[in-house]
Amino acid sequence: MTTSTSRANAIQAGLGAGLFGGVAIWLYEAVVWAGIQHLMPITAIPGNATGLVFGHAIKQALGIWADGLGLVIHFGFAMVWGVAFALVWPHLRRRGWEATLVALCMAPILWVCMHVAIALAGHEHPDYLDPQIIIGGIFSHIFYTVPMALRVKFRLA
Predict the structure, then answer these.
(1) Residue-wise DSSP of 79-143
(2) Could you say which DSSP state residue 103 is in?
(3) Residue 95: domain span
(4) pLDDT score recorded for residue 2
(5) Angle formed by the axes of helices 131-155 and 65-94, to 10°?
(6) Does the structure show a pLDDT above 80 at 59?
(7) What pLDDT score was predicted for residue 130?
(8) Residue 5 confidence (pLDDT)
(9) Total number of domains constituting the chain
């Protein structure tokens, strides 16, 4: 297989795995954040990314369009991270790494990267020094990284 074919396969696998992981994290948020912890109504999940990136006032002003924008933001980033993982996975696999272990290490790194970007983008964000926010955020990202990584592993096997 040529390098360009390998790269194209990795990109395709990463896009699909990113979508898969993006759905998985939303399912986690629906069950845990909305259902068990009552942190938000389940209907607020799609627009959550819009509020985090642009602030609550813009989210409110956009109305139903905030959900569409949140969907694009959420799955856009999910696919970008999926492609990034798929591009490095062959190198990690050759060195004997297990996809689940890499995913578990990736979750806190990903949470920090995303939330530093959110903090830089606007002034309205959760208290990222609150241990409940940190633990809950990292744990939710495990529900993204593990399914995403296993999907990449399966697709590129």
Answers:
(1) HHHHHHHHHHHHHHHHTT--HHHHHHHHHHHHHHHHHHHHHHH-S----TT-HHHHHHHHHHHHH
(2) H
(3) 3-155
(4) 58
(5) 60
(6) yes
(7) 85
(8) 72
(9) 1
